[in-house]
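Encode chain A's predicted structure.
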Amino acid sequence: MVMYLPDMPRASTGKWVTRAGSTGGGSSYRGQKPVNWYSALVIIVVLGIVSVVYSRFEYRSAVAAASAPPTVGMTWYAGFSFDICGSQLPPPAPSVNASKGGLFTAGSGVITIQPKSAASAGSNATLGKFVDNYAGMVLTANSVRYPGHRLFKNGMRCAKGTPDAGKIGQVKVEYWKNYLPKTKPVTVSGDPANLKLGNNSLVTIAFVPSGKSVPKPSGKVVLALLQAPQKASTPTTPSLPTGVPGAPAVPGAPAVPGAPGGSTPALPPGTPTPSGSPTGTPTPSPSKSSG
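Encoded structure for chain A:
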């Protein structure tokens, strides 16, 4: 049996290993600080603190925005109108998905602000939320569209047949904090979608030439705004059709169960009549005194 012994390391290799070991464990290496490692650790800690603070700020901001009025369960109303190239357009039709959003219209030029969740409550009850919930309506700082009409962008000319035909227009939104005649309007700057709507406020969405004043919503819209709370709180009493048991057949006559509709109900014997005598009872004639 032949056995082979492993080759022994050369003397030069041993010297190299000895030199490397002495260098790695020498005092010069131990004296160097791991600056990169400490720097990375500091950056990780700072980023963690910043993310926690930002998340806490976002959470508190969302809670504060939802806790301000109008809160979930409250109902506010605001009037609005469109003025395109000098023509004040009629109120848009009722919203088709009113139950899903928190802001909708019944078609009378009044926006019902009825938050369903925190997303449409408080400072989130904005004009943009209403516009986004209405199909075909567009409103940005640079464009506007009345439902069913063309889209107008800043710099476009007004169409023929309008009071401002041929003039270059721009988007302009005017806001009144209430409907009182002496209230002065405020021109909305920036993105009008961020405008928070107040209770009993008015807003006009317009596309007009630069420098032209924007009219307040019409008196009909203001009247509908004032009547909106009453209409919402007044219950409707359904009327019974003719022929339904329980409906009075003759105006002013008492309803008698079982009486056919459209006929005068039969009165039971003994019921007083308008003359004061009960039915079914003979009225005695005055007796003549004997002479």
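Residues 76-232 form one domain.
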